[in-house]
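Do me a favour: review this protein, sequence plus structure tokens, and tell me how the chain folds. Record follows.
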Amino acid sequence: MLEQETASIMKFVIEHAENPYPYYWNVPQNFMLPAVYFPIPEMMTGGETFLTYYIDFTWYINFFHKTAQQAYVLAQKVLIAIKQKRNLIPLFVEDGSVIENNWVRVEDPSIEIVENGIVQLTLNWKSRRPYERIETPKAQKFHMDVFLKMKKEVKSDDRFKQDK
């Protein structure tokens, strides 16, 4: 099962690279060209706040073509599209429509030639997630006695009483 963020990035990459053959997790021996390969992204985690944690993703997406230059052109189109969108990749739902005002903010992407016919696009982003909510018992009633310097007594059931 794909997460919404990774699936949205896949859709964005494929569309902006002009629809190369997509491969996920394993590339077959006789694959079609041009192609894009989405391996499993690397993940590191950490605590963020009392309510959230984060997952740092690093994804090495490979573009394949007959030459390194042709593969580079595919990766470069994606890199430029990401930069033009200010590093914001829109989130999509299962039917392919965009969720308004929701996106994945990626760090500045990079591309490099791996070998002849293969260029790698590197994407990094931080995904913030809420911790599982644990219901804790709540106190039902508080009884407090507060004595102020003005000799006023405050109780939970009474407003202010004047001492005599």
Observations:
- Residues 131 and 156 are 35 Å apart (CA to CA).
